[in-house]
Amino acid sequence: MQTAEAPSKIMPRPMFKTQYENYIGGKWVPPVGGEYFDNESPVDGSLIAKMPARKLPMLI
Asked: What pTM did the predictor assign?
């Protein structure tokens, strides 16, 4: 029986854009209201990127 070896390298931090848009119909489009929210890292609270905010209709 073989055992898995521990990774020998630390992976570099991924690179993110500062702001993302909605991908609709094969195109990147800004949110209709122009609103974005901050997506923060759960590790240290730093800003990862701004994400488009969506307002959903109330279903209740």
From this structure: 0.62
How far CA 44 is from CA of 15, 19, 24, 40, 47, in Å, comes to 16, 19, 31, 8, 9
User: Which pairs count as long-range contacts for 51-57, CB under 8 Å and 24+ apart, including other chains?
Assistant: 51/19, 51/20, 52/20, 52/21, 52/22, 54/22
Within 10 angstroms of residue 23's Cβ, the number of other Cβ atoms is 10
How confident is the model over 3-55, as pLDDT tens digits?
777 767 887 878 889 999 999 899 999 988 899 999 999 999 999 999 999 77
Rounded to an integer, what distance in angstroms lies between the CA atom of residue 15 and that of residue 2?
A: 35
Domain edges within the chain: 22-52
